[in-house]
Design a protein that fits this description.
By secondary structure, this protein is of the alpha/beta class. Helices cover 40% and strands 20% of the residues. It has one domain: Glutaredoxin (3-Layer(aba) Sandwich). Strands 1-3-2-6-7 form a five-stranded mixed sheet. The chain has a two-stranded antiparallel sheet with strand order 4-5.
């Protein structure tokens, strides 16, 4: 009887978890390439594997339905591991990770450039449709606080007003 109940519970829960929407994450190179033919703003989640708050963003904010829907509609969403070893060519420069010391992986040059040397994780980089840096927002944010930031940039409200005026 217990097995039957477990099977029923699993079958009932499958539609809930199976239909969960996700952010369409892509690489930095994919986003830049897509911007050539179908321009959108680029959102970059700069993270590390060891960052607890980065993992919390993935488990909470980045699965919120409103955040997922808005992100997928208005941005090319990029996950950028700040300690990756990939070589990335962008804007006429070649970015690498020269490696760390004392057993550390080292910081990728593109992550350091995008974060303007302020290596704090998680951090979120916003770029316009011309792949130009707009701003960087550091730190964990709950969905209720994060969505207005996405909308502020996504609607181009940042061109005409401060964020504080926008959220009023």
């Amino acid at each position: 009887m217990k097995r039957v109940l477990i099977v029923i519970m699993v079958l009932i829960s499958l539609p809930i978890f199976g239909n969960a929407q996700k952010i369409n994450w892509m690489t930095f190179q994919e986003a830049v390439e897509l911007n050539k033919t179908a321009p959108k703003k680029i959102f970059i989640d700069v993270y590390t594997d060891w960052c607890g708050w980065c993992k919390r963003m993935d488990q909470t904010t980045f699965i919120n339905k409103e955040v997922v829907d808005y992100m997928n509609e208005n941005y090319y969403a990029v996950k950028l591991d700040a300690e990756m070893s990939d070589t990335i060519v962008f804007g006429g420069y070649t970015y690498i990770n020269e490696g760390g010391t004392n057993g550390r992986k080292g910081t990728h040059q593109l992550a350091a450039a995008l974060l303007q040397g302020r290596l704090s994780y998680p951090s979120y980089v916003f770029m316009n449709e011309k792949n130009q840096l707009l701003t960087v927002a550091p730190g964990y944010m709950e969905a209720k606080d994060f969505l207005p930031v996405l909308q502020y940039i996504g609607t181009d409200a940042y061109l005409n007003q401060t964020f504080n005026d926008y959220i009023k």
